[in-house]
Amino acid sequence: MSLRDDLQALVQDVGVHGPFVSLFMPVHPEDVTMEKDRTQFKSLVSQAQADFAKKYPDAEWRPFGEKFALILAERQLISGTNTSMAVIAGADHVYQYFMRLPLNPEVKITENLYVLPIIENDQYNINYDLLALEKESFKLFSVHGHDVTEVDLPKSAPTNRADAIGTELKNDNDMQRSTGARGNSVFHGHDPKEETDRADTERYFKMVDDWIRANISVPTHTPVILMAVDEVQGEYRKISKSGVLLDQPRIAKMPPKLNKNDLHDVAVELEEELRVIAKKRVQKANDDARSGNRASSAVPDIARAAIEGRVDTLILKRGASAPGAIGFDHLVDRESEDARANNLLNDIAVVVLGYGGRVFVQGDDGFNDKEVAHAILRGRIG
What we know:
Blueprint: H1 3-12, E1 20-26, H2 35-55, H3 62-74, E2 84-89, E3 94-99, E4 106-110, H4 116-122, E5 128-133, E6 138-144, E7 147-150, H5 161-165, E8 167-171, E9 174-179, E10 184-187, H6 193-217, E11 224-227, H7 230-239, H8 260-291, E12 295-296, H9 299-307, E13 311-317, E14 325-326, E15 332-333, H10 337-340, H11 344-354, E16 358-362, E17 373-377
Parallel strand pairs: 5-11, 13-16
Antiparallel strand pairs: 1-2, 1-4, 2-3, 5-6, 6-7, 8-9, 9-10, 12-17, 13-17, 14-15
Helix pairs in contact: 1-11, 9-11
C-alpha cells in the first residue's frame, strides 16, 4: 500500500483521531537471527509505553501494545538491503515501513501521524518497468528501488521476433516468410536482405509497443524505461506510442548477461538519475509558481492554505521545525504546551497528503536563512 493510501485510511476516514505511536530504528540486514533488532524494538516499545502513560494518563495502551506485539511475533524486522524501519500505530491501524534512509532509534507520541522520515525516504522512489529490448527479443523487469524482478510474460507476448513475425526461409534465390501456425507463406521476390531485416525489425518493435500499450499503458500506467543500445533506442522510440515510455533516463547499453548483479547496478544508476530529474522538476515547478504568484513561504499562510486544500506541493527543509499543531478539527494551535512541543510542519504535510497533494523534504538548497517551507498553491494568491 502506498503512503498516500495509508494516509487516506488514517486521516480521511471520519472519526479517526490520535494519538499515534511511531517507532523509528536502524535495522541490521546482516543479522539473519534478528536478535539485535528484536532487542532494540522491545526497548523502543517499552519507552513508548512509558512516554504514552505520561502524555495520556487516561488513555489505554493495550490496543497499541497488541499491534507492536503482532509485528514482533509475525512480521519481519528486516527486508532486503533496507537499513531502517518505521512503525506507525493508531488505535485501529498499524503500518510498517522499511527504508534506506538512515535513522536513529526514536519514539514519537503525537496527536497526528508523524511521517516526515517516511516522506523523505519515499519521495523519489519511482516504481517502473525496465524494458530490455534487442532486435530479436525482449524481456521485462519490474523495479522497486533496487529490487529487480523479471516479469513472467504470457505466451502471447512477442518476446521473440522469429516466433512473433515468422521464420525466414530461403528457397533458391527467392526469400519467403512462414507466418503463423498454418505455415502460410508470403513471397517477397528478390528484396535485399538488409531491407527485409529493417522492415521486420520495425514490425517487431511495433508488436512489442502494441503489447506494452495493451498490458501496461492501459491497465497500470507504470512508467517504462528502455534499456537498449543506441541504434535500438532510436528505432524503437520512432514507433513507440505506448504513452508510458520515459524519454529520460535511458540505459543505452545492454549488459552481456542480465544477471542479478548487473540488473542491481542498473537499478542503482537509474535511481540516482530519477532522483536528479525529480528534484529539478520540483525546483522548476516552485520557480514557475513564484513567477505566477502561486507560491508561499510563510508557515502560517501555508498552514491555512493546506487546511483549505489549496496546497498542490509542499517542500520542507530537512530537519526544520515550527511550533504548532493542527487538530482533527483542522484548527491550528500555537499556544498550548503540547502544540509548542509539536512540529507544525509535519502536521501540514499530513494535511497536504490527505488532500492528494505532494510533499518533499529537501536540503538547504532553495531556502533562504529563515525559510523552512515552500508551498505551490492551487490557484493564484489574492
